[in-house]
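Q: Here's a chain of 572 amino acids. Please give me its 3D structure as tokens.
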Amino acid sequence: MTESTMHTLIPLPTVLPIMAAAITMVMGRHPRLQRAISLLSLVVIVAVAAAMLYYTDRHGTVALHIGGWGDRDGGGGPLGITLVADQLAALMVLVSAVVLLGVLVYSVGQGIRDGDEHQPVSIFYPTYLILAAGVCNAFLAGDLFNLFVSFEMLLAASFVLLTVGGSADRVRAGVSYVMVSMVSSLIFLLGIAYAYFATGTLNLADMAITLQDLPSGTRTTLFAVLLVAFGIKAAVFPLSTWLPDSYPTAPAPVTAVFAGLLTKVGVYAIIRARTLLFPGGSLDNVLMVAGLLTMIVGILGAIAQTDIKRLLSFTLVSHIGYMIFGIALSTPLGLSATIYYVVHHILVQTTLFLVVGLIERQAGAASLRRLGGLAAASPVLAILFFIPALNLGGIPPFSGFIGKVGLIEAGVMKGSVLAWVLVAGSVITSLLTLYAVARVWTKAFWRARADAPEGRLAGARPEALLDDADVIEFADREDPGRMPISMVAPTAGLLAVGLFIALWAGPMFGITDRAADQLIGRSDYVEAVLGPEALAKLEVPAGDAGWHAYEPLTVGQPDGAPTPGPQGGAHG
């Protein structure tokens, strides 16, 4: 594969779903064609993302200046839109595409089971594809404004998906979600304006160089503004209260893809800003405290829930804290473990929310007050919940355990008092997570339904997208909620991918180690966007001080090889 081929592939994860969305919108009266086009586009994106990861892992970062506007104009920085594929971006696009495809297959199966003629699928498919385009574009964006556009694409699509079906609860949750997201967007716009005023550019590579000459106070203020905007997207405490009230009201496929991907876009933005733009570590202690509070407050909220969707929403918030913990450690090992943990959490959290959709179909409820006997009623469903639940709780040998061990090891190597406090907090959070999922297992799967306080009650016939809140006697259900294979298969497939990254942990950590070194070194990214002449202006981390010390970059890597990180691979 050549670099020119990569230039052709880079825009496809954004352009292809947008084109497919336009076609499916026109095909609104032909749901079968909509399904086929949507599935085909996501299959192609998975293949493209895999090729991008293969190339970037072997040849380094590739940048594409859309419109041919890559030349500098009077020192003002690259013009137009820049898309950049490095190892982190390619890995995130690949994992996101796999999840988006799996959830779409699940939703197609659910729609076929319920009858598409009764479902608002004519708007679901194009909106879902716009969401996919926004997610992929966010990971590939090479400038702040393009990243902002990606967030707005996500906002518009997610509002439609949250409120599909038009029930009062969904509209209320959607309005709340939009209000919080608009506040985040306004703060982000303020950060963009401030960044342009201070640096004269919005290109991330150009900003990485320009920010070096600004006073430390200016850099810290700009970083703080961007952290607030990205922290809301990532649901970092205390900016996370919106999430448990918004996600559980949506249909199961929508909740699954939101839980798996949307918060990780915010985490990705924090990683990119922390490593590329602000490598000085001025707000690391703030990030550590935020990570600790996010872990503890989130898991305490989960323990207090009786609805499985809300419980998992709180665990989602809690485990964002692990990722913030790894970023704040400012070490190659911490960053590598964070990237691994992000991949793990995307897969596991999505799988668990899909399982909740199967539980609602099988038992007519997701409330622990109404559930019981699921292990006997459906052993397959019990397995589908049990494995990812243990994975989320960090039980060996699953990927959750491996990722947490990496983060804890990085915290111990850091050695500061705050790092040790976070290590203790992460262990406590892991134990409480295990307690929360064990509570779901004992109540929903192990005990008899007759022993549940409201075991005789259930929801009416489950629908794919519509919200039927009617409560009936469990014995009077017209549809017993049998699980179609087209819903079980994608759930099992994502579960298998989650197991694969545990079995393949060695090579996987090799990829994340190289990605971490590439992020910390910054030279590969800057050279790909601005050319080798820009490297003379770039400062890179040096020595054992992580990202807190700098020395001029040595120009002239052989054969254009990426500059290695300051400490080599985080795992050898």
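Q: Can you summarize the key feature?
A: Residues 72-77, 542-572 have pLDDT under 50 and may be disordered.
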